[in-house]
Amino acid sequence: MPPQGKRADMVTISDVARHAGVAVSTVSYVLSGKRAISATTRQRVLASIGELGYHPHAGARALASRRANVIAMVLPLRTGMHLPVLMQLVTAVVTTARQADHDVLLMTADEGPAGLRRIAASAMVDGVLVMDVEMSDARVPVLRELGRPSVLIGFPADPTGLTCVDLDFHLAGARCAEHLAQLGHTRIALLGAPPVVYQRDTGFAHRTRAGFLDAARRLRVAATARPCGESPDDARAAVKQLLDDDPGVTGVVVHNEAALAHIAAALPDAVSVVAICPDQVAVSAWPPLTAAVLIPAEELGRQAVSLLMRKLDGQPVPESTLLGPKAWFGAGASVDGRVTGS
Questions:
Q1: CATH topology classification for 169-296
Q2: CATH 3.40.50.1980 holds for 70-167+298-327
Q3: What are the start-end ranges of the H helices in the chain?
Q4: pLDDT tens digits for 106-132?
Q5: ∠ Cα 261 199 286 (to 5°)
């Protein structure tokens, strides 16, 4: 227990040294590993640390383990990113990292390659998580060169030599088109992310669009895909333009959480609406959705941290981890990860 009159968080390295009957420098060497200490003395110091409840400060822990016990997460706090989904993923990352005795340093994506080089050149973090990955992302060459392990939540066009995890957005787009075709729709459309997301060449938006159109061609269903802004006015304008261009559209896929309610409200009641969105959005959507492919934000956060921890421990990890799309419709049922007709 701590020395009389002291809380555990007030115990110092000097208290440990007195309790173990050694010099303060000996305790420091046990923590840092900079000098060989006999097994007997080392065990005595460690026993005193445990009995007194001493917690070395971050610097001491870093010296002892050669780690900072901190990982960096690069957040895409920029136009076109839906904040509730982002925060759901961040919460999962922070919670999972703490379970692995790591803290999370948040960075913003606007720092770009320079920000990655800055943290890699310091002892601030052990590894890096990167989000909102673009097809030709300027950060990718830097990540390949870094002296720090990294995991991307998303895929660039060429993921060779990287560790990437994401929802299989190509398959998610395809499943949505398949579901509408199964319901008998012959003219369908995708209203996707805001234009700026496509302009940035963001991977998940392009893959969803490609999967949707590929499936429609395979099923010989007439299909169109276009971006949609987030505001109510943008959503109403996108719906009007869609129906003006093709009044025969009877099924719409929405891949834009922020605009989903506005789009659904602007569409005629007879139009079936399928969304790619988190489960909370799918369940609470009004008017009700026909079906949804769920975005597993929490699972993505957990998987990303798990992969990074394994890399830090020198364990082999797969280069690519794609989470299969899971479906929700009506009562929230899912059949082998596929959207099925009711």
A1: Rossmann fold (3.40.50)
A2: no
A3: 13-20, 24-32, 39-52, 58-65, 83-99, 112-120, 140-145, 169-182, 195-199, 203-219, 232-245, 260-266, 279-284, 297-312
A4: 888 777 898 888 887 777 889 999 998
A5: 5
